[in-house]
Q: What sequence folds into this?
């Protein structure tokens, strides 16, 4: 059985390791970045004689800019239950690319007496200089993420200025040119698009258009059946009028439109005329007098209102919604709506709210 040998004077304990890996993009092949990271972590654990849990904590296709990752959240829940006393990662940037998130994770790991082992820097331990180096590494990880984001933005700016397609899925009615990657109308699918716009221009409802398309055996891009929702999304897509979506607006494009802009705008007005008018939202429960005025002392975010029902009573509180800390340090003493007395905020982990 393996024992912890890190740190002088620390209690020797059996070493039970878990491995966490992350990659920003999905992998279509058999060998992924997460697999390579996991193999390197296993080699280090085997060299040290540590045992590894079989449970896998991987995040494939998730950015390190946030902690809202399913694999990381499962890992945090696992370590909070005392399931392990050591976490192995390939590099600190795999854990997070945000300095503040790294600091919060370091603090929680220390509070749980949990060791963090980095394959690229296995010599780092628990000394003050090691903590200092970890913070520097976290800063470089965030700096590298911002540099990558800047390069991507610069690379997108050039084709954007030339009204060219940048990326994204190829919409129904078009094919992507193998050389330029720009949109080229697909003759057969383009006829279906024109037919849909013609039907919508004579005030046909989306569900009627979908039913007629399915009856005529017009299939979607994924060879599926048409629905009213999909028809509306198609009729609202400016790509068929020769433009690209750009955030909440549109931008020019260089591809050939399938329908004329006046037809596209007329269909849009017809769809708008069928939308039900917006009514004043129904307000339930009391006014929240502390909304936007109290915040979490650990993450700095404003506490959000929350209510629940128990029997005939409705209880209200304010709580932190950040995944890392929501279950650990923000505690609230509840009281029923309409009862007298103030809301009293308490803490489960020694931190006031």
A:
């Amino acid at each position: 059985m393996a024992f912890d040998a890190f740190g002088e004077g620390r209690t020797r304990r059996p070493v039970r390791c878990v491995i966490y890996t992350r990659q920003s993009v999905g992998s279509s092949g058999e060998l992924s970045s997460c697999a390579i990271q996991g193999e390197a972590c296993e080699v280090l654990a085997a060299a040290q004689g540590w045992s590894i849990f079989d449970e896998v904590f991987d995040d494939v296709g998730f950015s390190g800019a946030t902690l809202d990752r399913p694999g990381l959240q499962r890992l945090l829940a696992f370590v909070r239950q005392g399931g392990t006393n050591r976490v192995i990662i390939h590099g600190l940037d795999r854990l997070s690319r945000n300095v503040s998130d790294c600091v919060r994770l370091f603090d929680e790991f220390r509070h749980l007496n949990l060791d963090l082992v980095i394959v690229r820097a296995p010599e780092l331990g628990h000394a003050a200089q090691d903590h200092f180096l970890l913070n520097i590494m976290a800063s470089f990880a965030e700096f590298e993420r911002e540099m990558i984001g800047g390069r991507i933005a610069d690379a997108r700016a050039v084709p954007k200025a030339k009204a060219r397609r940048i990326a994204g899925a190829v919409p129904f009615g078009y094919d992507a040119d193998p050389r330029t990657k720009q949109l080229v109308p697909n003759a057969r699918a383009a006829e279906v698009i024109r037919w849909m716009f013609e039907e919508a221009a004579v005030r046909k409802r989306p569900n009627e258009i979908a039913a007629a398309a399915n009856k005529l055996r017009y299939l979607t891009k994924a060879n599926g059946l048409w629905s009213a929702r999909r028809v509306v999304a198609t009729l609202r897509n400016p790509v068929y009028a020769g433009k690209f979506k750009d955030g909440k607006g549109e931008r020019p494009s260089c591809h050939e439109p399938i329908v004329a802009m006046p037809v596209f705008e007329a269909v849009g007005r017809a769809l708008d005329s069928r939308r039900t008018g917006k009514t004043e939202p129904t307000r339930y429960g009391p006014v929240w007098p502390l909304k936007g005025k109290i915040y979490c002392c650990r993450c700095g975010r404003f506490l959000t209102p929350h209510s629940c029902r128990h029997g005939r009573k409705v209880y209200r509180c304010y709580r932190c919604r950040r995944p890392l800390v929501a279950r650990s340090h923000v505690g609230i003493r509840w009281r029923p709506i309409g009862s007298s007395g103030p809301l009293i905020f308490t803490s489960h982990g020694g931190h006031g709210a």
Remarks:
- The first strand starts at residue 16 and ends at 23.
- Confidence is low (pLDDT under 50) at residues 1-10, 324-353.
- The domain at 174-273 is CATH 3.90.1750.20 (Hect, E3 ligase catalytic domain fold).
